[in-house]
């Protein structure tokens, strides 16, 4: 069933090795550790954006970060030392140096407590200027028109003749707060991205987030400003994506965007997904032809967790090095040190770098291996260089033999004796008939301190395995809102220790969600996290692979709409989920709907 997986196309899709230049770029290990001239290193650079300088700056690369502390250093008052849009500088894309803050102050139209997020910088060949767009999280009442509202974000622009400034901020927002309803109801006007690293006088800007989706709009430059022209075009559904980054390759425009929780400490489930279009204004479709505008939301994984040290990778910045190899800068979370010292709950996001391969026309980080934690050949930062990086495809998780006594196709009229319920529901709410198990969705939850949902389980095999089900969930294909209604597969240790993969409703979107709950965590740490895989369908096949790596069990998601083409999602590492385990099915999170399961199939991992 995995024959359509793009990773198998690598043997023919990858280009031959490039002859290496005499001067080899240096190697690197994540995370990047930029130095600070006054002492110390940069340990946090959220939402990084990478740009190569032009003119006399052509040999220097720059990275721009969200306003945050650089590390755990404190001010004289004992508070974390926030920096306003930090700038990092490098000659080799491996060794970086803190080059200062972009702005001396917030824009005049920003509130006194506004945060400045996600800068994006583009160079204009027409004006030989650098244009920085960034998000301002809270605007003054005169701009938003809503007194006392602290969530009325806007997009700002600053212009400079050099990549490090000085920057001159426009006196008014490029994109003002956008209403979605009465009162303090505003869209997520955040995370700007101008198409391309270099443009002339016109271009396209993308912005937006979970509230009201991603938008695209034409822009025009002058020597001192950037202006929007034309109208907005929505390019993604709401409640799913943020952090857009669009690149042009061949005849295609690739929209990459982040989904999930960016900042949930050691349970951050962020990931980067992609769709493509032959127009910069979409519609953008994923590898399976599903639109990012669809309620059963499209998006093919480009960068997701692999179960190693790094979790929640996201907010990507794609670029090509001087030898033509594609790379991505992004932030991630170290599961062992997820928070700033003394600030449990404030997630630290170090800067990361990894190569991007194009497999059958689609970008994927390290041919599916995800974030790296070992030394790799670095990028070609200077003309005449070529990176020594070579693709090394990720191994596939292939089902092997099926052990007796675990699979069930729900023939007959009753559940087999090996099945049992945790919190058995009313007999009228489930039935076995015509080769299916019908279960009415329950309003209960399976969440920290809210364990009320029924769970149907059977014993799981020992060791590594593959478990799969096919579910038909009758939540309408469009519309809002259905709470957290979901149905799918679970690997169950207890109510507080499990991994589940479900087709879930979330606002106006439908997603596949790989979630994990841990029974014991340090004080103040979250117990629950989730990440997304491929798009669901009216019928969705869900597969959890349990594979032990270095003595630690990893649980990886695979999803499919047709049973032929499978999407490989992220992995949770869960050493707390130990035997005796059970496999099960859930249908919960909202009453009034029905889930039908065709089977539960179990294999050994080949």
Number of strands: 42
- The N- and C-terminal alpha carbons lie at a distance of 14 Å
Biggest sheet architecture: 7 strands, antiparallel
Assign the CATH topology of the largest domain.
Answer: Tachylectin-2, Chain A
Shape: globular
Look at the structure and name the CATH superfamily of the largest domain.
Glycosyl hydrolase domain, family 43
Figure out the total of helices: 2
The assigned CATH architecture of the largest domain is 5 Propeller
Rounded Rg: 24 Å
Count of spatially separate domains: 2
Structure classification: mainly beta
The CATH C-level name of the largest domain is Mainly Beta
What level of helicity do the residues show?
A: under 10%
Question: How would you write the strand order of the largest sheet?
Answer: 29-32-41-34-35-36-37
As residue ranges, the low-confidence spans are: 1-22
Q: What's the rounded overall pLDDT mean?
A: 94
List the helices and strands and how they pair.
Blueprint: H1 10-13, E1 27-28, E2 49-52, E3 61-64, E4 68-74, E5 80-83, E6 86-90, E7 96-101, E8 116-124, E9 129-136, H2 141-144, E10 154-160, E11 168-169, E12 193-194, E13 198-199, E14 202-209, E15 213-221, E16 226-228, E17 233-234, E18 242-249, E19 252-259, E20 271-277, E21 300-303, E22 310-320, E23 326-334, E24 339-340, E25 343-347, E26 351-359, E27 362-365, E28 376-377, E29 420-422, E30 430-433, E31 436-440, E32 455-459, E33 465-473, E34 486-494, E35 497-506, E36 509-517, E37 528-532, E38 539-549, E39 552-560, E40 566-573, E41 582-588, E42 594-604
